[in-house]
Structures are given as C-alpha cells and as structure tokens.
Amino acid sequence: xxxxxxxxxxxxxxxxxxxxxxxxxxxxxxxxxxxxxxxxxxxxxxxxxxxxxxxxxxxxxxxxxxxxxxxxxxxxxxxxxxxxxxxxxxxxxxxxxxxxxxxxxxxxxxxxxxxxxxxxxxxxxxxxxxxxxxxxxxxxxxxxxxxxxxxxxxxxxxxxxxxxxxxxxxxxxxxxxxxxxxxxxxxxxxxxxxxxxxxxxxxxxxxxxxxxxxxxxxxxxxxxxxxxxxxxxxxxxxxxxxxxxxxxxxxxxxxxxxxxxxxxxxxxxxxxxxxxxxxxxxxxxxxxxxxxxxxxxxxxxxxxxxxxxxxxxxxxxxxxxxxxxxxxxxxxxxxxxxxxxxxxxxxxxxxxxxxxxxxxxxxxxxxxxxxxxxxxxxxxxxxxxxxxxxxxxxxxxxxxxxxxxxxxxxxxxxxxxxxxxxxxxxxxxxxxxxxxxxxxxxxxxxxxxxxxxxxxxxxxxxxxxxxxxxxxxxxxxxxxxxxxxxxxxxxxxxxxxxxxxxxxxxxxxxxxxxxxxxxxxxxxxxxxxxxxxxxxxxxxxxxxxxxxxxxxxxxxxxxxxxxxxxxxxxxxxxxxxxxxxxxxxxxxxxxxxxxxxxxxxxxxxxxxxxxxxxxxxxxxxxxx
Length: 624
Known about the structure:
By secondary structure, the protein is an alpha/beta fold. It has helices at residues 7-24, 26-58, 63-112, 115-118, 121-137, 141-170, 184-214, 216-229, 239-244, 247-258, 267-273, 275-303, 309-350, 413-420, 443-447, 464-469, 476-485, 489-493, 516-530, 546-554, 556-560, 595-600, 605-614, 619-623, and strands at residues 372-380, 390-398, 402-407, 428-433, 436-437, 450-453, 534-538, 564-568, 580-585, 588-593. The strands form two sheets. Strands 6-7-8-3-9-10 form a six-stranded mixed sheet, with helices on both faces.
C-alpha cells in the first residue's frame, strides 16, 4: 500500500472496476451522464445570460432587449430547474440501486468460490480488509464509481468553461495604454500562469490524499475494533453472556475506550492537523489566488474597452468553473491512483481461482436408486495444515444401508462427510460413485444426490414452509409430511399462521422464536423434503432431549425408506439400529461392524466409548 502505483496500472484497475459496475447497473451510468451534462452546463447558461443583461444595462439600455433577455433568463432557469429535478430523481434512484447492488459483487463471488476457499482463513481475511477499506472512506469499488461521476462532471465543466472564456483572450483591446494586452505572448503567459496555479491546487490536494493510503492498516484495525466491540450489546446471541459476565463493562467498554485510533489525540488526527491539513489548506489557498488573477486580467481588459463590464462576470465565472473542473479532474487522478492500491485487494479477492475440477459426467438418475460409494485409500490434509485429518480410509456402502460414524472430537468424522459431499477433494486416494471417480461428475449434479443436516446448520428469517423447502414456491403437502416425520407436527399446530409463520423477528414482528431442538427438527425436515438418495445427519439430535431423540430414531427407518442414511453421533445409543458402524480415531477407521459385534470387542475403541457413556444412564434410559 505504501508503494506508489503507476498511472498506467491505476487506469487499468479503475477501468476494470467500472466494467464490473457497468454490467451490474448500466442504467446508473446513463442517468449519471445526462444528469452531469445538465449539472455542469446549467451554470454557464446562467453566467452567459447574466453577462448579457449587465452589458445591456451598461450599454444601450434598450427596454425591449432587456425584457427579452430577462424572459429568456427566467424561462431557461425554470426549464433547467425542472429538467435537473427530473434527472436528479432518476440519478438518485439508480445510485441507490447501485449502492444496494454493491454487496452482490461480493456475494456472487462467495457463492462461486470453492468450499475449500470459503473455509480458508486467508480468503476471509482478504474479504474483511475489503469491507474495512469500504467502511473507512469508501476505498475500493465505491470510490471508483464516485470517481467516475466527479471526473465526468469535471470534463464537462472544462468544455463549457473553454467555450465561454476563449473570447477573453481573443477580443482585442482598443489602441491605448493597454494595447500590450493584445500581444499573443501576453495571452500565452496569462494562460500558462492560470494553468500553473490550477495544476498546483490539485497537486497539493493529492499530497494530502496520499496520507490516507499510508495509514490504511491503522484505520482498518480501528474499524475492526469498533465494528466488533461497538455493537456487542446489540447482538442478541450474546445477550445472556453479556449480563452474566458483565462483558459490556469489562470487555466492550475497555476496548472501546482503548481504541484511540480515531480520537482527537490519535495519529490520524495529528496527521490531519499537521501535514495532511496543511497540504489541503495550500490547495484551497491556491484556488483563491487563481480567482484573484482571473479578476485582475478580466478587469484590465474590460477597463481598456475590450468588452463590456457584464462580460467580466461571464469570464470570471467561466474561468473559475473551467479551472475548478481542471482542479477536480487532476485531484480525481490522484484519488484514482490512491484508490488503485485498495482495488488491488478487491481484485485479489475476486480473482481467487476455482481450483476444484467441475467434472462433465451427468450423475446417473437411477429409478432404483442403486448407488454404491467407495472410499479407496483416501487421505486428506487441510490446506496449510501439517497434520493429516484423514489417513488411508477405505470403506464401501450402498443405498439403503444405515451407516453410523462415531469417534471422539477431532477424529475425522466431519471431514469424512465433507469429502463424501465433495466440499473438499481428497489429498490422496479416490472416492468412487458406482465405480467412477466423483471428480468426473458435474459438481452441481453430484451434490444434488445428498441431503445433509450439518452440525452448524442455519435457518433463515423466512416463513416455516420456505425454510423447509429452501424455495419461495413449494409443495405444501410435502412440507407438511416432512415436518411431521421430523417430529415437528405438534409445534407447527401452535404456529399462528402455519407454514406461513415467519421464523424469528428479523423480518416480521410476529415471527416465532424457535428453540435449538425445534430448529434441528426443521433442518431434518428440510433434508427429508429434498428427497435425495443419500441423507447425512451430522449430530442431528444434539439439541434434542433423550425422549425426542428416541422418537425420531424409532421411526427413522420408515421415514428414509430406501435412502442411504449416514449418522454422525456422539450418542452411541443412536447407533444400535444401524447396519454398520465405522469407528474413527485420529483420522483413521479403526473398527467396523454392528453394535453387538463392536461392543463385544472389549479391546476396541467402540467398547471404550460405549462404557464411558453407559455409566451416565440407567438401564431404562439406555433402552429408550
């Protein structure tokens, strides 16, 4: 960030960002162009007509001519005001729409990322920096769009200013004491002086803006602290802990008071009062000097008789707008160059490649749902990790079987499921579906054969029916059946609007808060509704009480019919009805068999786990 970006690279990055905006919201650029044309040229119409009126008053004083000019002035002002209002409304609507679409740039990238990258800390950190830059001063894509508007307005001001001020240097002074002003060299020197002053102003402003990039990391850190600790009390998920442990006083306030990055005595504040402020003050001062020089030259020519006194206002106004446009344009060049460093981070995130091979084979849609999955000497290591999460796992199972996956925390159970669903690809070995490497199947086609209830599943603040179906349009009868099979029928009857009852109160004040156990039942219903050949439940009943768990498991064989069911569970009592149990330990499958076979092996890991849990339950609870 501290290294200066060349203007060539800055242009390339900013143009690339504009192309992304152009595809996302093309109407914004059309509305911005028309609005900017009118906004830039309207002052020149007023300036020119005002000059004509003053010249007429100072010259012939013709009532007819004055009346004509005043009427033209009033009508043009009314029309310009009306058109500006209409275009301004169109522009504001499109800009507001573009602001909302900004998040879409990032959400679409998140959805297209390989899951391995979604799960990677470095990628999340990169996106976090993008957000912090945006929150700080709009750096990145937002400032890119803002820069387009300001540069367009500046260019239009320059064009209008040239048209109205060129006669200042062309109109001759009558013979007399000021004839020297007619010399071409005088006009050249005057233009050079004005340009020099006009260039100096944005140069000072760009010097001031350059300090933003130097302190970007400091500002991002301050934003991170504020974003987290400044809103602790608003997070309802933390509400209980906040009160029990007095975290607002002991943690939140402590860090907020310690966050002096944006305070009056911070480095950023001192920088603004010091060099950054001085450079900006110099920029504004130079602009005032320019106004004085223009007044001097225009008044001298008017005094010498080159044009009427009214034209002085025309030239002063036109040249001020002209050089304001030049100053703004050059200042935007500096902002564009500074912003290029932040755009580099934006594109670094957007350019994270999709390394996972998507495949081309269509997954066979078998009417008999006869699928066979085989793990063939599969090993897996998470990116950047030194330890193997899975090592030499080989196993085979078919549709219609019930497989339980058990083991202690960190034994590789969830990693096994992520590989099966192809959220990750094996580091070594192969996973086969009906004898074909799953990497050869179309990715979206392959994952469609799985219904999964993950341990950290998420429900949305949407109606109950839409949560189960995962869609706005759905089969209501199928949703009802899925909820009933998941044990949610009784709770659903108490919902005020049935399937149309919103979950949570984020979008509807009459939304219903559901408990953790109820949420798990809804998630199980969602998996049943999808009706895929494979149903995978990762700790599906962790938040349920033993009675509710027993109720679900007692009829699960009937519910899932001919599907393959894979259960990950810490409660070994839930494994009794499974056809096979795979015991994981330190990333390897150390035992396989039925419950009776494994519990009979007193030297095995399953026996150890079973007895560690059995001591906490009496005989009746265990049978339940």
